[in-house]
Amino acid sequence: MTPGEIISYVLVIYIQPVLCCIGFILNTACIIVFCSSFSHSYYRKTSLLVYLIGLSICNAFQLLISTFVLVLPAAEQFIDGQQFEEECHLLRIMNAQTVRMGYPLLMSANYASIWIVTFICVSRYQSLCPPWTLWKKRLHFSRRSKLILFLILILSIALNIPRYWEMELHERHLIVTSLRFQLWYKIVQEGIIYGTIVYGLPLVGLAVINYRTLQLVRADKRERRRPSAEYRSAVMTMIIFSCFFVCTTLSALIRLVLIVVSESIFLSPKFLWLPDLSNLLMNMNALAMPIVCFVFTRGFRDIFFVIRYAPSTDQVAAETAEKNLLNKSRSGHRNSSFLNLVENKNSI
């Protein structure tokens, strides 16, 4: 094998499956913990918690479907067709079905996760803005997390529906249609939609949020309301921006090459590993985002401990009833004292 094929072999056979397994387990654990905390009456339901649940679901789905859309089809080229002829034939038939149906869903999950990460940073910055600033009011829409997640889901699926016509089955084999080679389709789908809406706008938004968050951190100490929260938010948004830039830039560059040059460049043994590296970085971004949000947001760390240390629903109800009874007794005592005082004044 050539050096390019060796790199591709290592990425596809060893690194990508391990990364998908670890990422899927991590995101699934986040979904279980955050949903359990979300349904717990002890913990306040914040918009950031809703965003993180949506991010974990999209990332888990992306990592799961990557196994059938990216890993297995790429591993097919390294199987000895003469020694494992029947297995290779069955794998080729299965890959033809899974790639055609799963590729648009994979891209939809990737689009949604990028937008959710952006809104996480926007919501975090909005919570740090002083109440009198204009951005506090302008970004208040980011608190409506359920509506935004619904719109993101609809938009990400709608933008990837045309990808179902990029490939079709012909005698149980997957072939690429002429639609994918149309210049206008490449410009719209890969240039405008992915390059501008999916990659460009979030990149600019994250850069602006980083700049404004750093401005809050550098403000005078007398004007800071929560210095520690500002510092954590600044570090979190900077790391999110770095991960997004590193992990998504190569994928955007490859799509640019698809428009300017041709897909045939990636069939060369020298550049065979570039799409595999791009897919790996995309899944690394899905693995890193929940970790970053978990580490640098104290409220999310508290969520993991609330299930273990928070009182049960019965205990909360009992404590609430006890407080209400105590308040009523205090109120009755104050009323009786006031009546006694009035009676004493009247008697005098």
From TrEMBL:
Keyword Transmembrane helix attributed: yes
Which residues are in the G-protein coupled receptors family 1 profile domain? 26-293
The reply on keyword Transmembrane is yes
Q: Which Pfam families match?
A: 7TM_GPCR_Srw (PF10324)
Output the Gene Ontology terms for molecular function. Answer: G protein-coupled peptide receptor activity
Residue intervals passing through the bilayer: 6-36, 48-72, 105-126, 147-165, 192-214, 235-260, 280-300
Q: Where in the cell is it found?
A: Membrane
Recite the UniProt keywords alphabetically. Membrane, Transmembrane, Transmembrane helix
Give the record's GO CC terms.
membrane
Q: What is its main location?
A: membrane
User: Which protein are we looking at?
Assistant: G-protein coupled receptors family 1 profile domain-containing protein
- The species this protein belongs to is Acrobeloides nanus
